[in-house]
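Subject: Predicted fold for Glyoxysomal processing protease, glyoxysomal, 742 residues

User T.R. writes:
Posting the sequence so we have a shared reference for the thread.
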Amino acid sequence: MALPDVVEFARNFAVMVRVQGPDPKGMKMRKHAFHQYHSGKTTLSASGMLLPDTLYDGEVAKGLYGQDNQCPVLVVTVASVVEPFLSLQHRQNIAKGPPELIPGVEIDVMVEGKMGSQDLDEGAPRWIGAKILTLADIPASALALQSITEASSGSLENGWEVGWSLASHGNGPQPIMDAIQKESHLTVGESGNFSLLGKSTTRIAILGVSSLPKDVPNIVISPLNKRGDFLLALGSPFGVLSPLHFFNSISVGSIANCYPPNSLNRSLLMADIRGLPGIEGGPVFGEHAHLIGIFIKPLRQKASGAEVQLVIPWEAMATACCDLLRKDPQNAEKGPGYKEGNFNAVGKAFLSDGKDLDGTFRYLHKHLDSYYPSQLAVEQAMGAICLVTCDDGVWASGVLLNNQGLILTNAHLLEPWRFGKTTVRGVRYGSQSEDLSFLTEESASLVQNRVEGDQKSQSLLPKSLKTVNTFLSNEFSGYKINSSYRGHRNIRVRLDHRQPWVWCDAKVLYVCKGPLDVALLQLEYVPDQLSPIIVDFECPSLGSKAYVIGHGLFGPRCGFFPSLCSGVVAKVVKAMMPNSYSFSQEGNTQGQFPVMLETTAAVHPGGSGGAVVNSDGHMIGLVTSNARHGGGTVIPHLNFSIPCAALAPIFKFSEDMQDLSLLRILDQPNEQLSSVWALMPPLSPKPPPLPNLPQSLLEDNNKEGKGSRFAKFMAERQELLKKSIQLRKMERLSNEFIPSKL
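User M.O. replies:
I've generated the structure tokens; pasting them so everyone works from the same file.
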């Protein structure tokens, strides 16, 4: 199904919910990014989704609606849009009894013209009155959100809050023309009320509207959600301000990560997609117009300002409201490829056999290979991405290069002071930190403990590991490693290619002293069945698909697989190829090769050292950094990577790990590379010699009067003064590394 067809189908379900009611003190808008306030009345809005009658029990809906035994059409939205207007009694005990609103509150739903009229001409969208039927907590999603925020709260810099970064942080009511108002973010990491955060953020409201002129079409529920899958969201950002401009806008992206990662029963999805205030409550669809779930407000990291867009899967909502909602459409045909019965049950049976989780993935791919060929290749590349931690809680990503346990990562993880960090604990320049208690060999992943209820911890280290080749260790014992690494006595690498995850100790093998931000680690013990990355040295074309894989934002305590963010190659910066690279560029006749990639895929702190891969799942670059605003807020979609062609000596070395001279190629000074990675303009070439001037002109220039001699004297004195000042500065900075401007 083409994208326009998916959009056209999805428009049948997307609505905007408007709630307006008395607010004499202007207090109802305190938890909302935008609102309208006029003459003692506040108006709030959010997005919502119409449900076909195949997804809910009509008799139960009739009882809740309570009007002439009429079966309503149900609308699902977020509870936060109606909660400010609940009666005081119901707000104090929100879990019991039907919801009660304060007098004078009106709820309306805006539907597409084709759903609100029998005419062939769709016409303009129309408002339909609605009634609140129930509020429902989603325990699985609330627990997932609670687990994530608890695991990420080891330090103040990793505190989270719920809300949109576009919202201001003031507290007083503001004029109606000030469209985007403040949002009182619900902060965690300070009060520690993680349970309240999870429940309030994931709570939904179910509304009822009178029968529509047209029936809501049947829909198919997405049977499986995995990283990299296509997403289409419809919503009305800022919709209450002007529905003409914002009603049912679309956003397109993909699934970045799933929670819990080791189960087919997803309770929370992280989306790599544009999210704006007001889109919460909107429906989210997959590639074949299969329903995935609804949007909720994002998590926002206080230190970096990075937002994590969240989606509640339909299965989690239907499970929480099993008396009213159905997991699968009743009397509706299932999609192609799922005619063999209960697909989820088959998946659970496969997962219950812990001996071969890879077998589970192969089974799933058998069904989805024809639908997601590129995602399958990219998912296979994820097995080569690992999590690298240092003993003080800093983590970053890494890429497995070969079966001998050679890991490629960034040098700024080990030498942060070279790249503008004052301390290793800093969150700047792509790496991330947290207080680790820490991941002992007897501790199990937080994911399994939280969501699957495992009571027994599992060892994170495999029972049998291979030692590193002793010849390699002896060879590198003569290679001088900077003495500063004596402080990093506990470098550990988590390999995600198998279950349970494998934690291995590692040592620093090489740190580039040249302009490139790269380092090599060697696993001290090498597990079996490694899945090294496949490399593509070709220069990627502009606009080609690019996927960034890494451990951004969520550290080792969260227990996530690496996240996947998609985009395109936005820019390729080239430079003259050094003669020492000639072995890797035999067909290059122009003398240039790529030295920097810019992509539109999101890169978050902790994702540095990850891989940029193409649609074939082949690595085209090493993630190095993203950009920041002057105030420290991360710009995720402006990021920089080192192309594989520039790292050719490392990949050549990884083949047999014998020739150390290959690594020393990268240590050589290179003015062009240094200029590119410092974000400086190219060095100006030397000016050409002056042309032969007429003898008469030269003679005139030699005739200096008193004024010209005095000007020359002053210029020389000024030059001497500048040199003296520069000399003193150079003496102070002689032992300092010039930081990058990234």
